[in-house]
């Protein structure tokens, strides 16, 4: 009988520990909210001869609200500063570096309950001489 009580006592303790893990408190093992971080458009900027341009200014403008986001390309000629906060309306994306400007590209968004994804996911802009 004493052995049975010890077994049930141990099981009760285990059950209470397991139930404690079912609350809404933060836990290192919980999945992160995938809706928290906005999705970005990858924009690459190249010179007319095909070299990637560091320090180019990339601006995306929502075609309906006229709201803009501007980013600067890194040492690989890339910026991901343009994000889904401009969605769901189409955006116009263009870049400038010094006196050189790229033609504008149009990007659409495909939206679900959590995110809006840029279509296309990557835009390559080429500066005109």
UniProtKB/TrEMBL annotation:
Source species, domain of life: Bacteria
Protein name: Carboxypeptidase regulatory-like domain-containing protein
Protein's organism: Corallococcus caeni
């Amino acid at each position: 009988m004493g052995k049975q009580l010890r077994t049930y006592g141990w099981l009760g303790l285990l059950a209470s520990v397991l139930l404690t893990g079912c609350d809404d408190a933060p836990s290192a093992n919980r999945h992160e909210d995938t809706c928290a971080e906005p999705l970005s458009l990858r924009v690459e900027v190249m010179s007319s001869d095909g070299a990637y341009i560091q320090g180019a200014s990339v601006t995306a403008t929502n075609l309906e609200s006229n709201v803009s986001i501007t980013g600067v390309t890194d040492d690989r000629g890339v910026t991901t500063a343009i994000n889904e906060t401009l969605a769901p309306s189409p955006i116009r994306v263009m870049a400038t570096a010094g006196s050189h400007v790229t033609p504008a590209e149009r990007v659409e968004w495909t939206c679900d309950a959590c995110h809006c994804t840029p279509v296309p996911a990557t835009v390559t802009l080429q500066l005109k001489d």
